[in-house]
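Before surveying the methods themselves, we first show a specimen of the format, giving the amino acid sequence and C-alpha cells:

:::
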Amino acid sequence: MISVVIPAKDEQANIGQLVTEIHQALQGKTPFEVVVVDDGSSDDTFGELLRTGERLGCATKAIRHEKSTGQSTALHTGILNAEGTYIVTMDADGQNDPADIPAMLALLDGIHEVDFCIAGYRKHRKDTAWKRFQSKLANKVRNAMLNDGVPDTGCGLKLFPKSTFLKLPYFDHMHRYIPALVRRHGGEVHVVVVNHRDRMEGVSKYTAWNRVWVGIVDIFGVMWLNSRTRLPKVIKTETTKAQ
C-alpha cells in the first residue's frame, strides 16, 4: 500500500484539486491512501480535504496540528500515522505533478536495497529566474558539503519505505536532507526527472531569507551526524532455542 503524505498550511484553494489528481493518477493501479497534515491553517484546508475524499470515494486521512510547527514536523506526523509500506511525499501547492507518481512506483521493481529514496528532480522549473538561481546555488553548496548525489533536494516529490524514514533522525527542516540521511544509513538514492508546475493558488511560505540561514545551520548539523555514523557489517549470527 502507498501513503501519499502532504503537509499543508492554508491550502484550501489547492488541496481539493491536488487530491483529485492523486486519485486519478493512482486509482486502479495500486492500493493507496492520502494523508494530509493541516499544519495550523487559518482556512478550511482540513474540511476541504474531507469533502474531497468523500466525494471521490478516496481513502483520506486528515490530521490537524493545533498550531503551525513547520513542514518537517507535519511530514513526520503524517508518516507516523500512515498505513502504507511506501511513502510518497508531495507539496500541497500543486507544483508537484501526481501524474509522476506511477513512474516512480515502476522503479520499485528494480530496487533491491532495504533502505532507499527515489528523489524527484525538477529539471525544468516554473519559478522566477531569481528563485532558480538561489536554488541552483544552494543545491551546489549542499551537494559539495554532503555529497548526497541529488541535484534538487528541495523537490517535495519523493518515495521511500516507511521503515527507512523511521530510522532517520528527526529535526526541524530535515525534509530537505532525506536523501543525505538515507545514505547515512547505507541506503541508496535514485533520482528521477519530474514535472514542475506553477503554483495553483496562493503564495509560497518560503523566502530567500528564511531558507538561507537555517540551511547553513542544518548542513553543518547533517555533516556532524555523518561524521559520527558507524555502519557495522554483521558477518555471523547464531541463535539457540529455549528448552
